[in-house]
């Protein structure tokens, strides 16, 4: 038992636990913040929706490829990306990354 107490009391263990706590907190914050990024007005009567994803900067290839895993990217304009055929259940996954500012219905 004293080896276990020594391991828990060591500075290295405390640093590892602190890093794990920060990473878990970051993931929880991303999940909670995703709900606030999804705008009202996205149709509820269909299973798949077309959305406009706005970033705080012009999207790069990396961002486009991430969006293509969720839906079909049909174009970009400034800081926005048009993503079509997104499953309604995947809207929070689309809004979850910290670099996504807003998800709105595509008109």
List the main descriptive attributes of the protein structure presented here:
107 residues; alpha+beta; 4-stranded antiparallel beta sheet; 4 helices; 4 strands; 45% helix
Give an overview of the whole structure.
- The chain has 107 residues and is of the alpha+beta class.
- The protein has one domain (1-107).
- Helix content is 45%, strand content 26%.
- The chain contains four helices and four strands, in the order ααβαββαβ.
- It has helices at 2-9, 11-37, 61-68, 91-95; strands at residues 48-55, 72-77, 80-87, 100-105.
- Strands 2-3-1-4 form a four-stranded antiparallel sheet.
- The longest helix is centred in the first third of the chain and has 27 residues, at 11-37.
- It is elongated, with a radius of gyration of 19 Å.
- The termini are far apart.
- The mean pLDDT is 93.
Could you write a compact summary of the structure shown?
The chain is α+β, with helices and mostly antiparallel strands. The protein contains four helices and four strands.
